[in-house]
Amino acid sequence: MRIAIDMDEVLADTNAAKLTFLRERGYSFTEDEMTGRKVTELVSDEDAARVETMLHRGVVFGNVDVIEGAQEALARLVEDHEVYIATAAMEYPASCVHKVAWMERHFPMVPVLNLVLCGDKSIIAADVLIDDSPRHFENFGGIGVCFDALHNRGQDVAHRLMRWSDAPDLIDRLEQERAQ
């Protein structure tokens, strides 16, 4: 199968970087407060704008942590599938060089030519798209798999990936269903 995988909050823990930035400004949130909401919805307009400015500078994207289990799961997936990384990097154009360097450092098993820096993910020609934002599934021609995150809990999706360790089995199941 051809699998497209989002970067931010799927492979890269950009939410943790945002939370660190906001904690430095005196904010603290419970898991319940963050469930179903983006952290920028929980702060003042001025601080939400500061988060956006940080993201637009791009550097933060090169220094985020890897989501737990992602490296192991992708190492397994690339053995049997075509794996592409599809990130809406054009939302933050200055992030591109940092995202490519981050991928090369943390996911060397994914060839750099398999990195797709885009905006609208409906152009992606893949069987499966794993993404934390279900909005990307609306015009996507394949199967959308929502990677679980606090901000997307409560959203109704056909397929949800709770953790990376479940990915190989989920992909196998989707492949079997598609073959029937």
From TrEMBL:
Pfam families: NT5C (PF06941)
Superkingdom of the source species: Bacteria
A biological process term (GO) from this entry: pyrimidine deoxyribonucleotide catabolic process
Signal peptide from the UniProt entry: none
GO molecular function terms listed in the Swiss-Prot or TrEMBL record: 5'-nucleotidase activity
Catalytic residues of the enzyme: 6, 8
Assigned protein family: Belongs to the 5'(3')-deoxyribonucleotidase family.
Protein name: 5'(3')-deoxyribonucleotidase
Annotated organism of origin: Palleronia salina
